[in-house]
Hints:
The protein is α+β, with helices and mostly antiparallel strands. The protein has helices at residues 60-64, 192-220, and strands spanning 24-28, 35-43, 46-51, 67-72, 75-86, 89-104, 111-113, 117-122, 127-137, 140-144, 154-159, 168-177, 183-190. It has two helices and 13 strands; from the N terminus they run βββαββββββββββα. The strands form two sheets. The chain has a six-stranded antiparallel β-barrel. Strands 8-9-10-13-12-11 form a six-stranded antiparallel β-barrel.
Amino acid sequence: xKFGRDKTAKPPATTVELPxxxxxxxxxxxxxxxxxxxxxxxxxxxxxxxxxxxxxxxSAAQLQALVIEFQGPNGRVHLTGTASTDPSDPDxxxxxxxxxIDVVQEREYVRIKSARxxxxxxxxxxxxxxxxxxxISGGGFLLAGADALKIGDQVHFQLELAAGELPVSGxxxxxxxDAHGYRGVIFDEIxxxxxxxxxxxxxxxxxxxxxxxxxxxxxxx
Length: 221
């Protein structure tokens, strides 16, 4: 007669943390170059990613030693696996049996300058503030137009990343006030989907800046 499973009989199965479809990842071949790519398919035991910049096709040796890097909820994740390409479409990589190499715990996220509308409710009386971000990261943002808020105040926020899209929302706390009077907000609670959207927005802004810089250099030659 069984009264339940013996939880100590078998160790729990290890789940590999994978990026989601449409997420941005970085491919790191033997040369150490960092190649931006986007996830086309993601399921247990398989990833399909598309390289987003023009490069020479990766060699067999490069594919064998390839590392896939992305930002997960617990830090920066490095994956490896059996990578292959179709000669007719070398910019699309198939990674079979992806497995984790490590997860690098990071104290800070990438931060970018970005002015986005921010609706904030904060302070003891939950006053409404229609402010604007000065910069944004995956862990918080710098807020302009919130002179009524003090260090330690709890806030509820909604950040508009793009017109027509649902805002990123959550709760946070004012942790600093800089020389310009901007309030530094660190996240207390934010849905993981919203954090992924925020990180994806930051990566998109970085790529746009990189493309703009390359165009300026090209026209300057």
